[in-house]
Amino acid sequence: MNQILVETSARHVHVTQQDLETLFGAGYELHVKKMLSQPGQFASEERVDVVGPKKTLSRVSILGPIRPATQIELSLTDARSIGVDAPIRESGDVAGSGACKLVGPCGEVEVKEGVIAAKRHIHMTPEDAHEFGIEDKAIVSVRINTPGRSLIFGDVVVRVSPKFSLAMHIDTDESNAACAAGNVMGEIVP
Amino acid sequence: MNQILVETSARHVHVTQQDLETLFGAGYELHVKKMLSQPGQFASEERVDVVGPKKTLSRVSILGPIRPATQIELSLTDARSIGVDAPIRESGDVAGSGACKLVGPCGEVEVKEGVIAAKRHIHMTPEDAHEFGIEDKAIVSVRINTPGRSLIFGDVVVRVSPKFSLAMHIDTDESNAACAAGNVMGEIVP
After folding, report:
1. ipTM of the complex as predicted
2. Residues 6+ apart with CB under 8 A from A7
3. For a FRET experiment, which of A5, A27, A39, B34 has its CA 20 to 30 Å from that of B2?
4. Considering only alpha carbons, which residue of chain A is nearest residue B143?
């Protein structure tokens, strides 16, 4: 009952329509490669280079649909490797976050703020939240039992919306720390 | 009383005298760059490239003194990026572990087994163990409280020896998952 699918989010980029057109050309639209667990969200065919002062992450996947703000979600390992800041933020909270350059086949975008490390979170519907007895923005702990790297993640933020589907999202550092590659289950614990 | 210094181990290599000489030349000896928390252990001036099928990690630090077996300690992020296996193992337990190539200024070594992701662990003296009420090889959980990424690591192995100094070691993935860069403190919890 209490089990939640834990999904690992690899590094990815969200873009505005304007930035998409700068990167890929006027009137460009994303092409769906694969639908994701959250309704309407998809991995696109399109990829961009994420350029920092020290290094470049090549061919990073753009997730769709387009967003009101361009946002680059990196692990802290990624951020350190290319030499950019990535404060731990909820998606959409990009004010004062890290800077980088995006390079596409038709142009470049200097992103002044938008690089974050995603705060670990659980998407759930209002019905799920009612069942778990928790509310939007609650901070919970989630136990993940894996052979050799079991752990309990604290500081997991709950996000409730009728548009969501029940799933916990962690980044690749967090996933590796728990040996949670593939789809494992987590449990909210007191 | 219950607090333990948590140190982040970046990727590194241990080498046999024979492999050191293949990499750096006959009769070569490591040069101490910086002593580490564990008595007698040091980061050396020497660095080697760790080559996998997909990519190379350049200039990885060799830790001294020399060991009876060559061992490459990577994060799972590192291992995936260069395309090698890195099973989660205690230091020294390299049978059947991952393969890679090491490249030094004077030669190369094909390492057939030796690539691991270190199992998170606590070094302590017999006196520490007595104080904590635990024994060598005990598996414990350690709580780390950081702003935004608190967590409790399970599956932490305790290693007791009079040659050790009290410290917990985690890799960079684990450190990032806890935002534990720099020196933070952990607490053994039930």
Report:
1. 0.95
2. A37, A167, A168, A169, A170, A183
3. B34
4. A152
Do the Cβ atoms of B77 and A152 come within 8 Å? no
Six-digit token pair at B162? 């009079």
Residue B139 · residue B117 · CB < 8 Å:
no
User: How far apart are the C-alpha atoms of A41 and A30, rounded to whole Å?
Assistant: 12
Query: What are the structure tokens assigned to B174, written together?
Result: 């684990």
* Chain B neighbors of A152, CB-CB under 8 A: 141, 151-152, 154
Q: How far is A27 from chain B (nearest CA, A)?
A: 35
Secondary structure element (H or E) that encloses residue B105, with its range: none
> Which residue in chain A is spatially nearest to B57 when comparing CA positions?
A81
What predicted TM-score, i.e. pTM, was given to this entire model?
0.96
Q: Which residue of B has its CA nearest to A81?
A: B78
A101-125 CB burial, b ≥16 within 10 A, e <16: bbbbeeeebebebbbbbbbbbbbbe
Q: pLDDT tier at B28 (50, 70, 90 boundaries)?
A: very high
Q: Are strands A71-73 and A108-118 parallel, antiparallel or unpaired?
A: parallel
- Chain B residues near residue A77 by CB distance under 8 angstroms: 75, 77, 172-173, 176
pLDDT for A96 equals 97
> Which residue has 């975008």 as its token pair?
A109
Amino acid of residue B16: T
Instruction: In whole angstroms, give the CA distance from residue B176 to residue B181.
Output: 7
Q: Cβ B176–A179 below 8 Å, yes or no? A: no
The answer, for A178 touching chain B at a CB cutoff of 8 Å, is: yes
Q: Where are the alpha helices (DSSP H) in chain A?
A: 17-24, 76-82, 126-132, 172-177
In B23-82, the residues whose Cβ lies within 8 Å of chain A are 75-77
pLDDT band at B1 (very low <50, low <70, confident <90, very high): low
- pLDDT per position as a tens digit, A105-161: 999 999 999 999 999 999 999 999 999 999 999 999 999 999 999 999 999 999 999
